[in-house]
Structures are given as C-alpha cells and as structure tokens.
C-alpha cells in the first residue's frame, strides 16, 4: 500500500524528486505539520469568529439525510485565511507538484459538525471543474486539517493511483456531484482504500482526478478543514463556462511566516464569496442560506 507520507521541517523540507514521484504515481502526498501549533491555533480562531469567513456558510444535502456545511471564496483576500493560498509551503509546493505556475481557483471551509456533518460521495474534483470550463486536469487541492481527522469523525478516504483513470462521469447525488457509482464499484476492486487520518496542521496535496469521499460525522467531535484548489496558469478555463470560478489571476506570494504575522481576521474584502445559487454543480438547502 502506498504511503506518500512525509514530515514538514521549516527551512529544510522541499518537494524533492522522490516526493514529486509519489505525487505523480499515487495522486497524493501527505505532509505532516505543514502548519505548526501557533499557526493552526491562529487559523482556527479566524475560522471560528462569527464575523469571519463562516458567516458566509450554507448547506448542501448529502443524499443520505444529512447536510454538508461549507463556505467558499474565489480569491484569497488579505486576511489570515488568505495566507493558506499564498505561502511557499502551500502554493509554492503545489506549483512543483503540478509542474508550473498555479493560481488560486477557490478555497472552502468544510464544517463537519458533531453527529450532523454530512458525507461527500465518491467523486473527483475534476468531475466538477471540467463542467466549469477547465479543459485539462492540471489542478490539485491542498486539504488542511483544522481539527484532528480520523475514521470516527468522517475523515477523507482515497483510492491511491485512481487519478490515472482519467475523468469519470459525474451526476447529482443529493446536492453534490458524485462519480458514476457502477464505475466506482469496479474501480474499488483495483485500488487500496486509504483513510486520511490527519492531526491538526497536517495536509494532503492531491490531484484533481484522485477518487475520494468522506463519511458522515457521527461522533461527538467536529471535523473542520480548509481546502484550497489550485489550477495551472496554462489551464485558464473557457470564459463562458467558468462561472462562478475565476479566470487566471496571479497569486501574490508570501513567505512562510506570513500567517503568523497577519493580524487581519475580519476584513474579508476581495475574497468574493460564492453564492451557491449561481453554481450549476450544487443544489443547496434553501433554509441554510443567509438572508
């Protein structure tokens, strides 16, 4: 079973050739401790503030009786949460994994609350983004554990190597996009299943065609995560199909200590939060929308 599992050390760790090979071969790399205790504590505080990003949250039915709660923004902005998309150890590493300049496609705060957090069906992120005009799967996501994630509270599950299958057809499952389940059932016989059990501050960098899902959170512990999606600069989407996602916009890169130095928690100008009613790939719970 593939591991693709590494430990981050500030000033030492980089995407060495063997780490890039792991990403190419398995479709993902785990880097533990990308955010240290101080950083993750500060980021969590920013996420929890009533006047912070979470005030833009809404819910999507998971197709199994529960809801997925999240908020999504299209541009990084300049607040504490923006630094996740702009530092060398996030955006810089992602450029090395994807082989060229990347830009911020979007970020989201996933909020799986105790007992109520919904599941994500088996899917590929490119199953969504292809429908938004991205012609190549030259895209990947940075999944950061804000809280400890394990099997009990609904951690992410992946099929390493499945990104080599190419894009599978996706249709609605509840309010989200899910991969063709008949095809997924065949695929699951070919690949090992890995549960991404992460401590707070650990992250997974994974390819847009990697099949993944997560179960409901039936535990007494919440599971929050920030997921930032990056696109290659050369993969600018077809403008007529890209809404609500942005076209190529260069990232204003920041050093790795930028999150610790940032003191902006509530000025969210420039982030451009997504109105889910304009996203053709999701169906929201109307009772969850802000008025």
How is this structure best described in words?
The chain has a single domain, classed as q2cbj1_9rhob like domain (Jelly Rolls, Sandwich), CATH 2.60.120.620. The protein is α+β, with helices and mostly antiparallel strands. 17% of the residues lie in helices and 25% in strands. The chain is globular. It has an 8-stranded mixed β-sheet. A 4-stranded antiparallel β-sheet has the order 6-13-8-11, with no helix packed on it. The model has no long low-confidence stretch (mean pLDDT 95).
Describe the secondary structure blueprint for this structure.
Layout: E1 5-7, H1 17-26, E2 28-32, H2 37-48, E3 58-61, E4 67-73, H3 88-98, E5 102-112, E6 120-123, H4 125-129, E7 139-145, E8 156-158, E9 170-173, E10 176-179, H5 181-187, E11 194-195, E12 203-207, E13 212-214, E14 223-232, H6 258-261
Parallel strand pairs: 1-2
Antiparallel strand pairs: 2-12, 3-4, 4-5, 5-14, 6-13, 7-12, 7-14, 8-11, 8-13, 9-10
Quickly describe the structure.
Helix content is 17%, strand content 25%. It is α+β, with helices and mostly antiparallel strands and 291 residues long. The longest helix has 12 residues, at 37-48.
């Amino acid at each position: 079973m593939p591991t693709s599992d590494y430990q981050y050390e500030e000033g030492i760790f980089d995407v060495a050739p063997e780490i890039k090979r792991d990403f190419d071969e398995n479709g993902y790399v785990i880097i533990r401790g990308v955010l240290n205790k101080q950083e993750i504590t500060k980021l969590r505080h920013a996420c929890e503030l009533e006047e912070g990003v979470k005030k833009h949250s809404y819910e999507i039915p998971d197709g199994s009786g529960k809801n997925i709660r999240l908020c999504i923004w299209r541009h990084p902005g300049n607040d504490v949460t923006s630094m996740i998309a702009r530092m060398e150890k996030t955006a810089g590493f992602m450029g090395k994994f994807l082989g060229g300049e990347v830009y911020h496609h979007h970020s989201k705060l996933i909020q799986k609350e105790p007992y109520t957090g919904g599941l994500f069906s088996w899917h590929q992120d490119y199953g969504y983004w292809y429908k938004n005009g991205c012609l190549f799967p030259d895209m990947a996501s940075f999944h950061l554990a804000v809280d400890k994630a394990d099997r009990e509270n609904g951690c992410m599950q992946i099929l390493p190597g499945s990104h080599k299958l190419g894009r599978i057809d996706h249709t609605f499952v509840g309010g989200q996009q899910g991969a063709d389940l008949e095809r997924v059932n065949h695929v699951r016989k070919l690949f090992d299943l890995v549960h991404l059990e992460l401590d707070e501050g650990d992250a997974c960098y994974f390819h847009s065609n990697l099949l993944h899902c997560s179960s409901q959170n039936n535990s007494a512990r919440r599971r929050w995560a920030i997921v930032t999606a990056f696109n290659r600069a050369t993969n600018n989407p077809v403008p007529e199909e890209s809404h609500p996602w942005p076209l190529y916009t260069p990232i204003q890169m920041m050093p790795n200590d930028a999150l610790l130095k940032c003191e902006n928690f509530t000025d969210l100008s420039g982030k451009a939060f997504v109105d889910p009613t304009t996203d053709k790939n999701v169906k929201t719970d109307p009772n969850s929308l802000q008025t």
